[in-house]
Amino acid sequence: MKSIKSKIVLFALIATLLPSAGLGLLTFWQNEALVNDGATRELHALTNNVSQLLETWLNENILAVRALAAANPVIEGLAISGQTKNSSDTEQAQSVMASYLLSVIGKLDNIVALAVFDLDRQMIASSVTMPKADAALQDWPQTALMSPTDANLPVSPADWEVYYAKSTFNIIFPVLSDDNTLKGYLAAALDSNALARQLRETRKFSLGEIILLDKTGHVFLSSAMQLDQTAALDPEIFSALRKPAAGSLVYDGLVYPLAIGLVSAYEKLPIFILVERDYAGVQIAWTKLRNRFLTLVVILIAMVTAFALYMGHAIVAPLEKLIAAARSIVDGKLDVHLQVHQRDELGQLAAMFNQMTDALRHKHAVIMAVNEDIREKNQLLQKLSVTDGLTGLYNRSKLDAILVDQLARFKRNNRPFCLLMIDIDYFKHINDELGHIMGDKILITVSTVLLKSIRAIDYAARYGGDEFMIVLTETDIGAAIKTAERIRMQTSALCREFEESPVKITLSVGIAQGQHSDMIPNDLIARADAALYEAKKAGRDQVQIYCDGSALSSS
Known about the structure:
Elements: H1 2-69, H2 72-83, H3 87-105, E1 111-117, E2 123-126, H4 133-139, H5 142-146, E3 159-161, E4 166-176, E5 182-191, H6 193-203, E6 209-213, E7 219-222, H7 235-242, E8 249-251, E9 259-266, E10 271-278, H8 279-311, H9 317-330, H10 345-386, H11 396-413, E11 418-424, H12 427-434, H13 436-453, E12 459-464, E13 467-472, H14 477-495, E14 507-513, H15 521-537, E15 543-547, E16 550-553
Parallel strand pairs: 14-15
Antiparallel strand pairs: 1-2, 1-5, 3-4, 4-5, 6-7, 6-10, 8-9, 9-10, 11-13, 11-14, 12-13, 15-16
């Protein structure tokens, strides 16, 4: 027994001291590098978050300016200015455009100024004076202005405008007539203050500061309130950080006396994202980590020594381990493994026990994997059973269930709801002429417009072929007409922007409101279908409503 006790104690001390001492020395030498790597990963994650933030902010503003460029007052004003030689007519058209720009500028949070230019790139109407818009427009290639893409965005460099007392971007879009003829250009000055607020919000959830630099390394936006527009990164440091393989560097920071930071270029805008952390704070974290490790090693040695002495008091200690392990398996805990030190019967028993637990763990893992696979397939099947494979909208069977539920709610609560039946005009002809690939793209585009045009409490479904249905809950006929008209106009605008084959797509819409006399979904669908038929019969590209036994025009 003395021999067993001595061996247990000696083994426990060696098994604890040697790895702990070796790992402690290795950690002491390499911990700083590991902490720096961790800080670098955090900075990379922060740059990715900022890139996504910039992407969202830019896309929202581009969509807004693109919509303004397609507005009738701008198109008609440019057409009058370009066709008539009557100065009074031209001045009146320009005055109408200026009034329109002033009316919409107050509704757009991120746009501080709008201006319209003719084909000679001369400003003819503006909400305010745009000091840099003329220069940006003159310098931009004609091909980029005619066909702006994500890879060739018509966005001028960020600049500090004295007129606005803020950093701005100039976005330029072509103004095209209904027959796709270039009439002029629309320029918008974007206010970066909203972007600065979002940077400060992002900073709340990170340990680093976010700084946006121009191509020369000067600051124009920052999450740090104390950093002003005159600050600039040292050119040599800026050049080193911009190298592809540079990673993070330690340098004299803009926000911290000594900072660790990295730079990432944002391709769609001529700017660079700089993120900084206080290097002194990183070192403090390393020191705390080292002290915690040493404390943990001391505690671990004391615990292992006490445990070894306790186990050495009796020869039954291995049996107690085996009993405890068996009890864990009975309780369902399969992560049990016994240390085998002896070569006697107890050692053989422990080895066989380990083999048994390994087999049980393997079988349990297989069963869990099979269960997870079945669960995922069931989820997929459930989704496929209620959605259309091409558009992702609800299918016809799901629509019937929705209508049954809405009719029951209507009869119970007497709250109105409406059904929109939507058909793509001449879709078969377009599909035959342009091919099924373009036909599918049109169907997907219409589905996207439907999803963006309804609320979270509404439902959109593909009824079949080129027919769609929308269930508008808590909605009367008036609100349903507005929604239908918005869908009809947005669909036509989006389909004209297809690069490979711009097409004119129009929609015919029939609207019916739920009634107490409706017993089944087909009662409501029949009225919406009748209104849709009247919309097609009246010339298509319009909205008809079913009211008092007949279909009426929404106008």
